[in-house]
């Protein structure tokens, strides 16, 4: 947990200024060519260049071992960068102790003191900073109200549910009014319904108070729901940095396409390039058109990406430029609001089509032969899988 330099004036109010703070700083957090190695040979983080704006909610998303948590720990000061600089409000903080960085932390494990009441847990970080008791009590009440836990100040953590404990952990990170809060898989221990509720709570809180948040998760749905931007990590590098809609709708490579949401990938080779689109000959002989991503050249191998919800099995109702492929239904799974059909198509036995569960929806049975299609702009020619 971070700290603010504090001083009191004669009327009892406290003057706080975060370490190196500049309210006009656009790039509030900057990773400049940052590397991290634990053994002196292999790099866990490789030449990271990343800027985070003041007031932004940025999520570091990726699989285990991708480098996202290491980046968060370097920003917090619990790990030291092997090379490069980490700047906070324009100042290099590589040599600044964690407790002097002005950063709040929220962990998956909550890390609440079990022998203290909720109010005492929140008051403790203020007390060690030498803040007077009347002001501590005011700030604790304010922090509890922010997370809608005002009536729970006298309870102990063991008397709270998991969601309530997470709210208290969040309040403790906010109680000293930091300009930056880091969250490391904070909702991982909650059940699905509560996790989704807390996602919206945290997003709403961020929008209300305008604090800068760096959030780490491997849950793609969580990242899409909460973030202003997402940095997708893999193999120690950022594969794509963009708003959630762009990450999902326009993945920059095959890793991002497959990691973010369900995705169909069809291997093939590029036959033609024209007007930002590539004509691809699939391995099974069909020719389809897809949006080019990066530099595509004739004869190069590619992987065509199509989201399951963009696949339609009534191509006659689509625009005239839509294509049609033969497919066979293998199975249909009822998901409540949607139906997921696994098809045999274009050489794949795991081609997925999602359909809305609506009145009058045509029922598909195993063995049915259908035509499927999609708009060319919904397919993307990416690097080979």
Folded structure, characterized:
The chain is α+β, with helices and mostly antiparallel strands and 385 residues long. It folds into two domains: 5-249, 3-Layer(aba) Sandwich (Rossmann fold), CATH 3.40.50; 262-382, Nucleic acid-binding proteins (OB fold (Dihydrolipoamide Acetyltransferase, E2P), Beta Barrel). Helices cover 22% and strands 34% of the residues. The protein is built from eight helices and 21 strands. It has a six-stranded mixed sheet with strand order 8-9-10-5-11-12, with helices on both faces. A five-stranded mixed β-barrel has the order 13-14-15-21-16. Helix 5 (192-209) links the parallel strand 9 (180-184) and strand 10 (212-217). Helix 2 (118-127) runs parallel beside helix 4 (162-174). The protein is globular, with a radius of gyration of 25 Å. InterPro entries: AAA+_ATPase, ABC_SmlMolc_Importer, ABC_transporter-like_ATP-bd, ABC_transporter-like_CS, Mo/tungstate-bd_C_term_dom, P-loop_NTPase, PotA-like, Transp-assoc_OB_typ2. The complex is composed of two ATP-binding proteins (PotA), two transmembrane proteins (PotB and PotC) and a solute-binding protein (PotD). Residues 1-21 are annotated as: Disordered. Part of the ABC transporter complex PotABCD involved in spermidine/putrescine import. Responsible for energy coupling to the transport system. It holds the Pfam family ABC_tran.
């Amino acid at each position: 947990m971070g700290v603010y330099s504090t001083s009191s004036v004669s009327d009892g109010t406290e003057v706080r200024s975060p370490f190196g703070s500049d309210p006009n700083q656009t790039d509030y957090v900057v990773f400049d060519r940052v590397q991290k190695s634990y053994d002196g040979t292999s790099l866990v983080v490789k030449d990271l260049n990343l800027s985070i704006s003041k007031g932004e909610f940025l999520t570091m998303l990726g699989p285990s071992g991708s480098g996202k948590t290491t980046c968060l720990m370097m920003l917090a000061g619990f790990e030291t960068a092997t090379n490069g600089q980490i700047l906070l409000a324009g100042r290099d903080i590589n040599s600044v102790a964690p407790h002097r960085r002005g950063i709040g932390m929220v962990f998956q494990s909550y890390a609440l003191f079990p022998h203290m009441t909720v109010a005492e847990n929140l008051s403790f970080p203020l007390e060690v900073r030498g803040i007077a008791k009347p002001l501590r009590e005011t700030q604790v009440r304010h922090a509890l109200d922010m997370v809608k836990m005002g009536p729970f100040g006298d309870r102990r953590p063991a008397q709270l549910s998991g969601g309530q404990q997470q709210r208290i952990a969040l309040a403790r990170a906010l109680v000293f009014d930091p300009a930056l809060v880091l969250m490391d898989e904070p909702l991982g221990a909650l059940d699905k319904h509560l996790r989704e509720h807390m996602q919206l709570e945290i997003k709403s809180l961020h929008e209300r108070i305008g604090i800068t948040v760096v959030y780490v998760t491997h849950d793609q749905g969580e990242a899409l729901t909460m973030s202003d931007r997402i940095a997708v990590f893999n193999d120690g590098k950022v594969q794509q940095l963009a708003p959630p809609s762009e990450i999902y709708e326009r993945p920059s490579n095959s890793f991002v396409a497959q990691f973010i949401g369900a995705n169909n990938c069809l291997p093939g080779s590029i036959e033609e390039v024209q007007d930002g689109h590539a004509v691809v000959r699939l391995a099974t002989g069909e020719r389809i058109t897809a949006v080019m991503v990066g530099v595509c050249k004739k004869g190069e191998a590619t992987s065509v990406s199509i989201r399951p919800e963009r696949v339609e099995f009534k191509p006659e109702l689509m625009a005239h430029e839509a294509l049609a492929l033969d497919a066979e239904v293998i199975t249909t799974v009822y998901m409540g609001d949607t139906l997921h059909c696994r098809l045999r198509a274009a050489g794949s036995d795991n081609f997925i089509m999602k359909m809305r569960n609506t009145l009058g929806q045509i029922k598909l049975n195993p063995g049915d032969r259908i035509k499927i299609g999609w708009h060319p702009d919904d397919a993307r020619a990416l690097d080979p899988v």
